[in-house]
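ok so heres the complex, two chains, lmk if somethin looks off
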Amino acid sequence: MSSITSAPTTSSTGMADFNRTTSRWGQITMIAGLLISIAGPLYLVFFGGLDIAAAQLWIAFAAVAATFGIIWIVEPLTYYPILGPAGMYQAFMIGNISSKLLPAALIAQTNIGAKPGSKRAELAAVVAICGAAVVHLFSLAFFVGLLGTWLISVIPPSVLLVTRLYVLPAVLGAVLVQAIVSMKQPRTTVFALLVSAVVVFVVLPLVPSLAMVSTAIVVLGTILLSWILRVKRFPAAPAIRQE
Amino acid sequence: MALANNPVLWICVAGVFGVIIIQSVIFMNAARRAAPSVGMSTQDIKTSFRSGAVSAIGPSLAVCLVAIALLGLFGAPAVLVRIGLIGSAAYEVSAASVSAGTMGAKLGDASYTQSVFAVAFFVMSIGGAMWMLATLILTPLLRKGDAKIRSVNPAAMAIVPAAALIGAFSCLGLTELPKSGTHLLSFAVSAAVMGVCLLLAKRLGTSWLREWGLGFSIVVGLIAAYLAVGA
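and the predicted structre for the whole thing:
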């Protein structure tokens, strides 16, 4: 669309139009994305020929909510000042915000010399995220959808079995180190490791039925200990960087 | 894992791709229309788009590497939507692990049945939906500049999320250790590689090592596990 040459607009009406469009369509597309993303698993659960009780779903969801519920709310709050309203609707659907979208937005703003917080910077971020989205969708479709699916069909079953069995500890080892380093909170780290060790190596062997809620217990325990034993006059809140 | 490659799931993948494409087109056009009013030239728009695209290549490929490593566990459709798009490897793998745990199962081994996969995928997706729901509710409120939301106790904002994340990942990580010596090895090697990557990234000032850290760590951790099993 090349409506750039159309009637001259003043700054306020131009941005008002942008805000209205991105807000309305941001919400519509995000709701659509939300519904489509849960349609797949809902189909499996109800029409996949599996015997899954509703209670199983609720228990599993409750356990995950107890673990990440706070992050669901805190992350949008943290990113809003950087992304702006329009960028929010893009970022939380495209994903991998801190490792991919924020750098893309920052580099674009630097390259056109836009001052942070200005209207130009806001538009540059939105356009840069569009550019990042195009690249990302293409590389996902090609490298994961096509190449990855082909790779899975040709690698020896023994290798596939090893991947399936041991990919979880391989992901979590790296993720834990990344979280500890990027949060820069040594006290919280010590409490988290202590509580986890007690729960995993002492409590669970004694009361195996607690395995269901072990992560929730550790999350709650770590929050309580870190809060009660916090250093007063804590520095400003760091951005969440766990992608 | 025939279920994980069900055609309906592939249709949903195409749907999410489609929604993001439509959104990008609408936002691009809106930005182009608004650009002149804030003193942004057509060249600025082009430069911004190209900068965003080029800077995303590295991080995007890094995500692809992680996604490929998880294909065997979740299948391509779930990996594409959950790890490639909406979510991220750390959250999605953790959510899947927690929900499998509530069914007394472990991801990847014999107890990882189709039902366990379906419940895990369901919970990963509902979890992702919660992020989007929070975004949908909070963005209009923040736009109005609701002072109440921003004036949350700063000490609580610093401590609580960090404690929740490190607590969750350390519990899930340590839970892997007693499963077998190979689990322990895979975890330790991956953690060590990540530590080295982050250290080098800081020392040498190279940010690509930070982006690729997760992918490298997983691959090296898996190679260590493969060698240990074969030995």
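quick notes: Chain B has two domains: 1-151, 153-231. thats all i got rn
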